[in-house]
């Protein structure tokens, strides 16, 4: 017999066993075994599907809190106490104010006694270990049913939100005020000491004594933090005066732990026995969020936060100086975004439509696939159901046939037994039969049938015959031995007489057997006639029974035929509906494809028309450019011809001038010197010619500049005309234009 671990009874028995194991482990102070039992209980609660009673959960959290306290996990101990309080308050609606105040006070002091920082130093976070401390914290959180590890600040928020502070005793409310609200480092330890004295002297508050030691350590940490916000350094003896319940060694241990856990920036100067708060700027690490009363930051913290403060002040100044700057920038950015949207909205819209269409097609495909799978699964289920029904019918039919067969065999066996008894009684009436039956016991008689007994009877007769023959032969040998061969006739007589005796014996035996057979046949006929008479009276009942049985079978057959026809009609309607849906889906899909093809053809026609119009426009621009180029080429040819004529005129003038100068020089060398007046007149003429030449040169320069300007204009026009040239056969280029 297998054990079902998923049954409710088994899970409840396992849970009760683990709870008893946890109780005995706590009584024997076997805290490691208690922790294992807690893990087993949590595993059973997670594995079980039923909701456990609040009483069971309250008992579980109470014992879990004790295990956490003994293990030194004060934070998880406080969380377990809080869970136990919430369950107890929800479970017991008629709690008295005194009982509720005691429970709330215990929750409050358990939360206040939790450490102010992590339980491990910062450098331990970077050490690789087989089991990470964070993993252990997560496991402990799972035991409490929490998805995230709890913190001291979160527990305090839960206390304030659930009204536990208001339900606690007045002394506990004052304790919360001193530790978490008031900033009075000079009176803090004295107030905590007075609270501890009250708890020790009062019997009603004696259940809070276990938290006093941890509470004093928390008070010392609060004292150090508050003093660090006021003083940059303080004498160690003065600090001892502020903490009267602490010893120098305990206070120094608290200071070292605060520095180790990076909760406080403090250095101890053992030569002057002073404490220096704060640190070098290079040693300042990332700050932590302060909880509890806070007056001001230390100078090192102020320097560390200087850039952040300056950033916030500069941001406020920018908002005051230029309040509309962000608005203007946002408007400019908005206009750019709108412009970019206007440029890309059509493309984005088409892309969104295509994506939406693809999504719709995908959804239709998935729905069709899901429908096909559902139909296939339904068909499989129906086929399996029909097969199971068929197998069940076959099994019932086989069982029925087996029952009828057994019934018939029993009836045949009873008839055979009755015949056997009759044959036995007949056999017992004969002498040989009596002998055979006397040699058999009751078990052998029951196991043997009549034929076997008859065979035994025949074998017994054969045995007697053989014994008789052997006895006669023995007597014959004796007689021959005694009498000898003296009288052969006598011996022959004896032989013939023995043969006669043997024949007579056989004849007698056959007559007896024949008489027995005839008697048995008569008895059988008599018994058969009795059975016939007895059964003839039952013929009417048999006919009635067979008629009722046939009617019942026919009604069952007709009912099954009707059910099958209904099932067949329903199946036919289902398949017709499925085929109809499939045809509708196919028609819808073909219609969508036709629409898509038509839209694609329309888009292709529009794109082809745009390409044709663009090609015609480019051809017209090309023709206009060629005509303009022809005009410019004609103007250029005319300008070149005019320049050529001007150059020819200038060259002719220069040749003429050189000829005149050569002739004049020749004349001057041939004739004697004439009067000055003639020289002056010739000089005047030469100067006049020089002036005319200068005028011609200046005119030529002006015409050249004009021609250069025209060339530049013509070149610019050529550059402008080169623009619309495109390869008309390139459709992509035409589309880009």
From TrEMBL:
GO terms for molecular function: mRNA binding; translation initiation factor activity. GO terms for cellular component: eukaryotic translation initiation factor 3 complex, eIF3e; eukaryotic translation initiation factor 3 complex, eIF3m; multi-eIF complex. Residues 103-282 form the PCI domain. Keywords: Cytoplasm, Initiation factor, Protein biosynthesis, RNA-binding. The keyword Lipoprotein does not apply. GO terms for biological process: formation of cytoplasmic translation initiation complex; translation reinitiation. Residues 594-664, 685-737 have a biased composition (Basic and acidic residues). Pfam families: eIF3a_PCI_TPR-like (PF22591), PCI (PF01399). Residues 407-426, 594-737 are annotated as: Disordered. This is Eukaryotic translation initiation factor 3 subunit A. It comes from Caligus rogercresseyi. The lineage of its organism: Eukaryota, Metazoa, Ecdysozoa, Arthropoda, Crustacea.
């Amino acid at each position: 017999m297998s054990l079902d671990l998923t049954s409710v009874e088994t899970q409840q028995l396992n849970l009760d066993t683990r709870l008893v194991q946890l109780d005995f482990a706590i009584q024997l102070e076997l805290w490691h075994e208690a922790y294992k039992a807690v893990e087993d209980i949590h595993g059973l609660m997670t594995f079980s599907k039923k909701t456990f009673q609040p009483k069971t959960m309250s008992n579980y959290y109470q014992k879990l809190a004790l295990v956490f306290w003994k293990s030194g996990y004060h934070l998880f101990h406080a969380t377990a106490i809080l869970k136990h309080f919430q369950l107890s308050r929800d479970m017991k609606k008629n709690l008295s104010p005194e009982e509720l105040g005691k429970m709330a006070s215990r929750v409050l002091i358990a939360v206040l006694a939790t450490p102010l920082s992590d339980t491990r130093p910062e450098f331990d976070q970077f050490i690789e270990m087989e089991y990470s401390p964070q993993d252990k914290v997560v496991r402990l959180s799972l035991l409490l049913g929490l998805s995230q590890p709890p913190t001291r600040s979160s527990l305090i928020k839960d206390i304030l939100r659930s009204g536990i502070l208001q339900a606690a005793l007045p002394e506990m409310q004052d304790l919360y005020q001193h530790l978490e609200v008031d900033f009075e480092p000079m009176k803090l330890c004295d107030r905590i000491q007075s609270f501890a004295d009250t708890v020790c002297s009062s019997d009603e508050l004696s259940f809070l004594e276990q938290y006093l030691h941890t509470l004093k350590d928390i008070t010392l940490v609060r004292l150090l933090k508050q003093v660090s916000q006021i003083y940059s350094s303080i004498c160690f003896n003065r600090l001892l005066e502020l903490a009267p319940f602490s010893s120098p060694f305990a206070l120094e241990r608290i200071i070292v732990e605060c520095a180790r856990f990076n909760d406080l920036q403090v250095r101890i100067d053992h030569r002057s026995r002073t404490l220096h708060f704060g640190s070098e700027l290079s040693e300042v690490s990332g700050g932590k969020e302060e909880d509890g009363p806070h007056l001001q930051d230390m100078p090192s913290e102020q320097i560390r936060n200087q850039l952040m403060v300056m950033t916030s002040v500069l941001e406020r100044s920018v908002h005051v100086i230029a309040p509309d700057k962000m608005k203007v920038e946002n408007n400019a950015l908005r206009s750019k975004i709108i412009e970019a949207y206007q440029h890309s909205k059509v493309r984005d819209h088409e892309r969104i439509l295509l994506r939406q269409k693809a999504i719709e097609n995908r959804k239709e495909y998935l729905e069709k696939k899901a429908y096909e799978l559902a139909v296939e699964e339904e068909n499989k289920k129906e086929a399996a159901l029909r097969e199971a029904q068929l197998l069940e019918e076959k099994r019932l039919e086989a069982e029925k046939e087996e029952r009828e067969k057994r019934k018939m065999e029993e009836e045949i066996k009873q008839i055979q037994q009755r015949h056997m008894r009759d044959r036995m009684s007949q056999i017992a009436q004969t002498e040989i039969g009596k002998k055979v039956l006397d040699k058999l016991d009751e078990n052998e008689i029951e196991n043997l049938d009549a034929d076997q007994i008859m065979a035994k009877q025949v074998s017994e007769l054969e045995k007697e015959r053989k014994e008789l023959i052997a006895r006669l032969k023995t007597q014959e040998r004796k007689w021959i031995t005694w009498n000898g061969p003296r009288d052969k006739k006598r011996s022959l007589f004896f032989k013939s007489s023995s043969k006669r005796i043997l024949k007579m014996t056989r004849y007698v035996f056959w007559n007896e057997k024949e008489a027995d057979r005839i008697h048995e046949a008569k008895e059988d006929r008599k018994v058969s006639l009795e059975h016939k008479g007895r059964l003839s009276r039952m013929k009417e009942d048999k006919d009635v029974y067979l008629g009722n049985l046939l009617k019942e079978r026919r009604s069952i057959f007709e009912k099954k035929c009707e059910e099958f026809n209904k099932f067949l009609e329903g199946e036919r309607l289902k398949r017709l509906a499925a085929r109809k849906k499939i045809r509708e889906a196919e028609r819808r899909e073909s219609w969508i494809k036709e629409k898509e093809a038509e839209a694609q053809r329309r888009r292709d026609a529009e794109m082809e028309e745009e390409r044709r119009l663009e090609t015609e426009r480019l051809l017209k621009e090309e023709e206009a450019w060629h005509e303009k180029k022809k005009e410019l080429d004609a103007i250029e040819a005319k300008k070149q011809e005019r320049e050529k004529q001007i150059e020819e005129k200038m060259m002719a003038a220069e040749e003429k001038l050189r000829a005149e100068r050569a002739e004049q020089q020749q004349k001057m060398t041939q004739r004697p010197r004439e009067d000055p007046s003639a020289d002056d007149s010739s000089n005047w003429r030469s100067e006049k010619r020089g002036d005319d030449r200068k005028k011609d040169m200046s005119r030529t320069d002006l015409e050249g500049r004009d021609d250069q300007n025209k060339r530049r204009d013509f070149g610019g026009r050529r550059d402008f005309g080169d623009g619309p040239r495109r390869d008309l056969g390139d459709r992509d280029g035409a589309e880009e234009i």
